Amino acid sequence: MKRFFSKIKTVKGELNFAGDKSISHRAIFFSSMAEGKSLIKNISLSEDVKSTKNIFSQLGVKFLEDESGLIVEGKGKRKFIPPANALDCGNSGTTARLLSGLLIAQDFSSVIIGDESLSKRPMKRIIEPLRQMGGNLESINFNLPIKIFPADSLNSIEYQLPVASAQVKSAILIAGLHLSEKTKVIEKFITRDHTERMLGLPVIKSDNLIVISSSEKFYPTEKDYFIPGDVSSSAFFIVLALLSKNSELVIKDVSLNPTRTGFLDILKKMNADIKIENEKQSSNEPYGDIIVHSSDLKNITVDSSIIPNIIDEIPILSVAGVFAEGNFEIRNCEELRYKESDRIKAICENLKLTGLEVEEFTDGFRISGKIKNAQVNFNSFNDHRIAMAFSVLSMLIGNECSVEGIECVGISNPNFYEQMEAIKN
Ligand code: S3P
What we know:
Layout: E1 2-5, E2 12-16, H1 21-33, E3 35-41, H2 47-58, E4 62-66, E5 69-75, E6 87-88, H3 93-103, E7 110-113, H4 124-132, E8 136-139, E9 146-149, E10 158-160, H5 166-176, E11 183-187, H6 194-199, E12 203-205, E13 209-213, H7 215-218, E14 224-226, H8 231-243, E15 248-255, H9 262-269, E16 273-282, E17 285-293, H10 307-310, H11 314-323, E18 328-330, H12 343-352, E19 357-361, E20 364-368, E21 377-379, H13 384-397, E22 401-404, H14 416-423
Parallel strand pairs: 2-15, 3-14, 6-7, 10-11, 21-22
Antiparallel strand pairs: 1-22, 3-5, 4-5, 7-9, 8-9, 11-13, 12-13, 15-17, 16-17, 18-20, 19-20
Helix pairs in contact: 1-2, 3-5, 4-5, 8-11, 8-13
């Protein structure tokens, strides 16, 4: 499906976002693993989280939705029922990777599958450490489908993450929850820490961060969760408000977890007028309101240590970079090539259509020059964050720009276009 955009004049209003996608996945995992009833308030409406929920239904977990939220009747440790069919993660890397960590510890066989994009994404990063733990996993070329058989025995490991990935960290920690000895994950660059916060895992802060899990104290129990709004979904609206004239946008009750708000730090350094108010905590996660006013942005150098914390926001940060003074350059983010699409290629190919000068590197890209062609048909590459970033760029350029393949926005935010209509003046 193709959508046409006209130029935005100003952004005014207040937005609430459905629960954060990463936190929602984990709330479903841990409430399903716990024995008894948990309540999840403000669960994500994303297709990805629906994939996680459907898989746990196949494993025997009962879900009931009412006005209070999502009630989850969890099964308890090693009490899932063997699935009759393959477990389909759809487009969701988080589902596939965290699920692998859980399934190596079950006493039944299972098969994990996904859509075309997920079936091309690298799984060696989880298969290797989970095999070191004794996991019995089979796959061709380290891609989905992954077949998982009951393990003869599992052992704990101490694992230094070769790639900065919260999904890999979480998969190992979840497997570790089934063992009495301590499983340790060591990360050089800090990645999102929702698993640690939700399970209350001990974290040793030294040069490298070490997170520990074991079954004795940390296996999840039933509880109530409140999921703060999805800060990654809000990023598209924040950049649109910053770059349109006389704008004021208030985003209510959104996640302010510091491992997720790196893009706000970058935008502030770029001279963005962004304020945080009403900071609170729930389920160990900080959240609050973000207030944004139009700003004249300047490009800055992005330090490599912050890359894991802005990885999902690089597409929209690059749109901010197009309109900021100076040239936008980002490096050390080769990981972007292994997301829902090759995001470096997707960003570069789309930006080139506008006549901007774009230099593509293996680990990043550089944008310079001026927009020469203001009537462009961008491609979503079937990737929700590319579709949303280039919808924002289209509204900033005007002149009937369009984005082809917009249906994928539901992977993270099915309300994206309704919310855009509500704040645009
Ligand atoms: C996620 C971790 C990140 C991120 C993804 C969600 C998570 O992926 O890009 O959107 O919920 O753990 P990686 O672990 O591959 O960096």
